[in-house]
TrEMBL record:
Recorded superkingdom: Eukaryota
GO cellular component: cytosol
Reaction catalyzed: beta-D-fructose 1,6-bisphosphate + H2O = beta-D-fructose 6-phosphate + phosphate
Domain Fructose-1-6-bisphosphatase class 1 C-terminal: 202-331
Subcellular location: Cytoplasm
Portion of the full sequence shown: 152 to 486 of 496
Organism of origin: Thalassiosira oceanica
Protein name from the UniProt record: Fructose-1,6-bisphosphatase, cytosolic
EC number(s) recorded for this UniProt protein: 3.1.3.11
């Protein structure tokens, strides 16, 4: 029985990464990311006792008030990534300008991240997360990050919740999940080749319905269709307001997540480089769809978008064929 309770052959994150690549710089990068996720997880868990709730008195790149934990998480990621020696340019939601790594520590990757997404949930202990995307350096300038999601080489998120869970994928690879085992301080491989439920999964729609009056008619119609029931079955509503938690649930259980372009936010709310593209890669490589909905004159795929600025936004409609198909049908009906 001791073999079941204690693992003498732990399938750690490092082991998985080393099995997938011979690129030692990529191994170092994943190692630095994992270190920062452990540090952030510790800060989130100790936020109450360490008095880390509340505002830091600053405003971030998109005009949001920064929380103490936002700033601390950002510092943890920047320090870990700079000192990994394998990054050249970092883009963080919390920094207006890109961070250029000093030459003596520079390497071949560019990383974009939202260090602590879902900040409005921090002070009431609701799940938050980190989201990241990785590109290879080209010319060592910020434009290196203004590339299509199709050029992203690695993307993922870490959820800080009842368990700390890292989900990521390499380009053209499978989606894998790792839980932090606090007894050994390591991420352990717990979910293999994660797949979006083939039949669409649970009937759940997830959106901030408080924006209903701003939505275009097809989005209103689709959400009404979910509520009225498809094939006679009304959908349940679930919306945490932390993208990592809402997407993690959608990936595991199924359903649809919608943050569309609307009259209030013509480009959507979520950031393309460190929210839209990485989540789109995860959902698509797990067999789901990550659509922009109607945006820039057509219905496109989030993973094919190219950012025109590091903090630009994009609309997001993510789910399986069953549910995203409902939204597409509503667009068709609207002409
Ligand atoms: P943040 O990066 O400032 O935390 O904002 C992003 C968050 C996402 O996690 C979440 O999906 C969305 O904003 C919620 O927005 P809203 O409060 O408009 O529903
Ligand atoms: Mg944030």
């Amino acid at each position: 029985f001791w073999r079941e309770s204690m693992d003498s052959d732990a399938p750690t994150l490092s082991r998985y990464v080393m099995s997938q690549t011979k690129d030692s710089e990529l191994v170092l990068l994943l190692n630095a990311l994992a270190t920062s996720f452990k540090l952030i997880a510790s800060a989130v868990r100790r936020a109450g006792v360490a008095q880390l709730y509340g505002l830091a008195g600053e405003v971030n790149s998109t005009g949001d008030d920064q929380k103490k934990l936002d700033i601390m998480s950002n510092d943890m990621m920047i320090n870990a990534l700079i000192n990994s020696g394998v990054c050249s340019i970092l883009v963080s939601e919390e920094n207006e300008e890109p961070i250029i790594v000093p030459v003596d520590k520079a390497g071949k990757f560019c990383v974009a991240f939202d260090p602590l997404d879902g900040s409005s949930n921090i002070d009431c202990n609701v799940s938050v997360g980190t989201i990241f995307s990785v590109f290879e350096k080209k010319d060592g300038v910020v434009e290196d990050l203004l590339r299509s999601g199709e050029e992203c080489i690695c993307a993922g998120y870490c959820a800080y919740s009842s368990a700390v869970e890292l989900v990521f994928t390499f380009k053209d690879s499978t989606v894998e999940g790792f839980c932090l085992d606090p007894t050994i301080g390591e991420f352990v491989h717990t979910r293999f080749n994660m797949q979006f439920p083939a039949d669409g999964g649970k009937r759940i729609y997830s959106c901030n319905e408080g924006n209903f009056i701003h939505w275009d008619q097809p989005i209103k119609d689709a959400v009404d269709a979910f509520k009225n029931g498809i094939e006679g079955k009304p959908y349940s509503a679930r919306y945490v307001g932390s993208m990592v938690a809402d997407i993690h649930r959608t990936l595991l259980y199924g359903g649809i997540y919608i943050y569309p372009a609307d009259k209030k936010s013509p480009k959507g709310k979520l950031r393309m480089l460190y929210e839209g593209i990485p989540m789109a890669l995860i959902i698509e490589q797990a067999g789901g769809i990550a659509s922009t909905g109607y945006f820039n004159g057509k219905i496109g795929e989030v993973s094919k978008l190219t950012p025109d600025a590091i903090h630009c936004k994009c609309p997001i409609i993510m789910g399986g064929h069953r549910d995203v198909g409902v939204v597409y049908d509503c667009y068709k009906k609207a002409g």
